[in-house]
Amino acid sequence: MATISIQTKEEKSIVHTIYGVALGPGDPELLTLKALRVLKDADVIFYPGSIFKGEEKSYVFPLLKYHGLDKKEHRGFYLEMSDNRNQVNKVYTETAESIKKLFESGKKICIVSEGDISLYASFSYILTRLQELQLPIELIPGITALSLGAAQHKIPLSLLNEKIAVVPRVQTFEEIENCLRTFDTLILMKVKTNWKEVYPGLKEQSWSFYYCERLGTAQEFITTNLDELSERVIPYFSLLIIKKG
């Protein structure tokens, strides 16, 4: 006699993996085939944004729109641009809880990030919370702004045994000098911070400079001439590659 197997409701349900997906530095074509495939398969996409002077903006939403992903269900999590972490921590916790509820309802979920998913990404704070909730998650890496910056300037970031340092929000020119005593290439991220304080010291050096801002977008600007930056308003999405050789 044949055996008939009857599946329970729980056995019929399919458990999906939650994906953290890097979108690259700004050019909508600079994301991996795997990233695009997973995003197209998602039911809900969580994306980051910022709040500045009461206005909400998202750097990544246009990238989703470019690929026709704006037609999916979206959940934006907007973070105040401040050193006070109270608001952002609350948003991260609430976002993780929302993801958990959607996941338990059977939804396929992606959380996207600018640049690479593991380099100064707001996603990492949500990742910690999802891990604490013991939810299955996979990360899809992406192209970094510093990689695109080197490509746009047509320079190598390193050769042979050269050492690289990546420093965000440098505070003093002395900090830069100290780094270049040990490292051959220094990449300053978020150079808007204290730019006016470090700029005069940089002008006195014979180092090679490769400045980048808003990489991969229509507003992209790059230069190797520091004189062009003397009166320029430096945006948040900016970096400076310094090579001492």
Portion of residues within helices: 25-40%
Beta content comes to: 15-25%
**Rg calculated over all Cα atoms:** 21 Å
Cα shape? elongated
Biggest sheet record: 6 strands, mixed
What number is the mean pLDDT?
90
Cα end-to-end separation: 81 Å
Order of helices and strands: HEHEEHEHEHEHEHEHEEE
H/I helix tally: 8
What does this structure look like?
- The protein is an alpha/beta fold and 245 residues long.
- Helix content is 31%, strand content 24%.
- The strands form two sheets. Strands 1, 2, 3, 4, 5 and 6 form a six-stranded mixed sheet that branches. The chain has a five-stranded mixed sheet with strand order 7-8-11-9-10, sandwiched between helices.
- A hairpin with a 2-residue loop joins strand 2 and strand 3 (55-57).
- Helix 4 (86-104) packs across helix 5 (123-132).
- It starts with 8 loop residues before the first helix and ends with a strand.
- Mean pLDDT is 90; it is low at 1-13.
Quick recap of the structure?
The chain is an alpha/beta fold and about 240 residues long. The protein is about 30% helix and about 25% strand.
